Amino acid sequence: MIVDASVAVPWFVDTPFSVSARRLRSFQGNAPALLLVETTNSLLKYVRLGQIDLDQVLVGMGALNVAITEFVPDAALLPSATKLAAGNNHKIYDCLYLALALERNEPLATADKRLAVLANSLSIQTELIEPAS
Prior knowledge:
Elements: E1 2-3, H1 5-12, H2 18-23, E2 29-32, H3 34-48, H4 54-67, E3 68-72, H5 74-88, H6 92-104, E4 108-110, H7 113-121, E5 126-128
Parallel strand pairs: 1-4, 2-3, 4-5
Helix pairs in contact: 1-3, 3-4, 5-6
């Protein structure tokens, strides 16, 4: 399963998506290397808001390295991600996840509805996590 930052962040900080996201943590996850930077950047936003401290970010970074089986170098995905981004008028960051899902023929886990719609249009099996009700 390819995991994006919208799934990884709720593993480490409580959000409306945490219950759904944490169920996916036991799966073998793969991701573009970008996931580390995106997740850390999002967690730092919670530090600035005073909701978590920096130590929690550092622990999360370490845990992410355990939870994700393989981080694929972004440079290896960039040519196909660029084609996907240009052909679908979508952000290159998201297209790295799509490129990896297509390359590996693995499902994509995301909370991003727009990304899930695009993934489905590309015949990528998608696990769209929803907020807990």
